[in-house]
Amino acid sequence: MKVAIIGSKGQLGSDLICACPSGVDLIGLTRNELDITLAAQIHEVLNCLKPDVIINTAAQHKPEEDNAELYFKVNAIAVRDLANAAKEIGATIVHISTDYVFDGKQPWDSSYSEDAKTNPLNTYGVSKAAGETYLRNILPQHYIVRVASLYGQTGASGKSGGNFVNIILNKAKLGEPLKVIDDIRMSPTCTLDAAKGIWKLLEGDYSFGNYHLTNAGACTWFEFARKIVELSGESCEVIPVPHTAYPSKICRPLNSALKNTKGPALTTWQDSLKYFLESV
Ligand SMILES: NC(=O)c1ccc[n+]([C@@H]2O[C@H](COP(=O)([O-])OP(=O)(O)OC[C@H]3O[C@@H](n4cnc5c(N)ncnc54)[C@H](OP(=O)(O)O)[C@@H]3O)[C@@H](O)[C@H]2O)c1
C-alpha cells in the first residue's frame, strides 16, 4: 500500500510517520512539497506519485484567527480539490476532521456518535464541516476521522505554546496557581494513539464513512489540567473557572465529547496521558 501523508511535519502527521506499519510505502508531504491551496499542484503531485491512500492532516485550525477566506481555502476548497484528484487516480482519502463540527449542545454527560448531526458554531468548524461534505459528495472511498483536543510530541504548528499539555506543564513548573475552564467538556487525545488508530482503520476491515478516533472518555479542561499536574509531580494549585473568565469572540462548543462506536478502540485519556508524560 502506497500512502501519502499531507501535513507530515505537523503534530498528527509526524506521529503517523512514527506509527507507520512495516510494508507501507510511505510518502510524507510537507507544505513545501504540496500546498493544498494550489489545485494545480495537487493534481501534479498526486498524478506523479499515484498513492493508494492519501491522509490529509493539513488544516487551518487556530480558532482565534479572523481570516475566513483562508479557513475555507484550506479546510474546504482544498478538500474538494483533493477529493477530485483522488477520484482521478482511484485513491482513498483519510481526511482528519474535528469535534468542532458539532455545536456542543448535547446533554452534559453525553458524547457525539459518528452519525450525530453536525452544526458548527465558528468559522473553523463551518469550514471543516464543509470539507467533510465535499469529500462525502465527491469520493465514496473516504474515511472522515474526527479527532479532538490533540497533544503530541510535536506541538501543533497553528497554536502558540504547542498544545495544552505543553502549556500546562510549562506553567505548572512556575508553581503559580492555574485557573482553568471547568464548563467545557471534550475528549483529549494523544496524537500517537490517533495515528495508531488510523493505521488500524486502513489495515482492518472497516467500511468507509465517519470515525471518531479519540481517547476513550471525556473531561473538562480543568480536569485535564489537574491530571497533567498530578501525573507530572508538579505542585501547583489548579482552580476551576467558567469559560466566561476568559472572554473570547469565538463561540466554542460546550460539550464536544466524542464517542467511538465503530472504529479501532483507543485507550482512556487518563492512561494515554500517563504514558505520554512518562515519555516527555
Ligand atoms: N490540534 C487540535 O487540537 C485538533 C483538534 C481537533 C481536530 N484537529 C484536526 O487534526 C488535524 C491535525 O492537526 P495538528 O494538531 O496535527 O495540526 P498541525 O500540527 O498544525 O499540523 C498541520 C500541518 O498542516 C500543514 N499545513 C497547513 N496548511 C497547509 C497547506 N495549505 N498545505 C499543506 N500543508 C499545510 C502545516 O504546515 P506548516 O507547519 O507549514 O503550517 C502542518 O504541518 C487537522 O485537520 C485539525 O483540523 C486538530
Quick rundown:
By secondary structure, this protein is α/β, with parallel strands linked by helices. The protein has eight helices and twelve strands.
Radius of gyration: 18 Å
CATH architecture group name of the largest domain: 3-Layer(aba) Sandwich
The gross shape turns out to be globular
Query: Average pLDDT value?
Result: 95
Across the major sheet, the strand order is 2-1-3-4-5-10
Report the top-level CATH class of the largest domain. Alpha Beta
Tally the helices: what do you get?
A: 8
Sheet having the most strands: 6 strands, parallel
**Order of H and E elements:** EHEHEHEHEEHEEEHEEHEH
Helix content: 25-40%
- Bound ligands, named by name, code or SMILES: NADP nicotinamide-adenine-dinucleotide phosphate
Q: What's the name of the CATH homologous superfamily of the largest domain?
A: NAD(P)-binding Rossmann-like Domain
**Approximate strand percentage:** 15-25%
Find the structural class using helix and strand composition. Answer: alpha/beta
**Which fold name fills CATH's third level, the topology of the largest domain?**
Rossmann fold
Indicate how many domains the architecture comprises.
Answer: 2
N- to C-terminal distance:
32 Å
Say how many strands there are: 12
Flag low-confidence runs: none
Per-chain topology:
Blueprint: E1 2-6, H1 11-18, E2 25-29, H2 39-49, E3 53-56, H3 68-89, E4 92-98, H4 123-138, E5 142-147, E6 150-151, H5 164-173, E7 178-181, E8 185-186, E9 189-190, H6 191-203, E10 209-212, E11 219-220, H7 221-232, E12 238-241, H8 269-279
Parallel strand pairs: 1-2, 1-3, 3-4, 4-5, 5-10, 6-9, 7-12
Antiparallel strand pairs: 8-11
Helix pairs in contact: 1-6, 2-3, 3-4, 5-7, 7-8
The chain binds NADP nicotinamide-adenine-dinucleotide phosphate.
